[in-house]
């Protein structure tokens, strides 16, 4: 094999790798890459968190509940 064929082969491999790089990076991340590990660790930390409700939020919800329970009057057409 002469050197022009080796260069053409290398260029062909480079083109194929360039075209498939997005798909190959997706496969690599599914195999347990650093991003997947970071996301898994973050999800574990988030699972231990609890939501703390403020008094303002509780007050707003109680007002909404009270308004929803008020009786309504049907308005009649004045025709």
Mean pLDDT: 83
Helix-strand makeup class: mainly alpha
Percentage of residues in helical conformation? over 70%
The N- to C-terminal Cα distance equals 98 Å
Number of separate helices: 3
Strand content: under 5%
Name the shape in a single word: elongated
Count of DSSP E strands? 0
User: What characterizes the major β-sheet?
Assistant: none
What is the gyration radius calculated from CA atoms? 31 Å
Order of helices and strands: HHH
Low-confidence stretches: none
How many separate structural domains? 1
Describe the protein.
This protein has helices spanning 3-30, 34-47, 55-69. It is elongated, with a radius of gyration of 31 Å. The mean pLDDT is 83. The protein contains three helices and no strands. The protein is mainly alpha-helical and 79 residues long. The chain has one domain (3-69).
List keywords for this structure.
mainly alpha, 0% strand
Secondary structure elements and pairings:
Elements: H1 3-30, H2 34-47, H3 55-69
Short structural description:
The protein is mainly alpha-helical and 79 residues long.
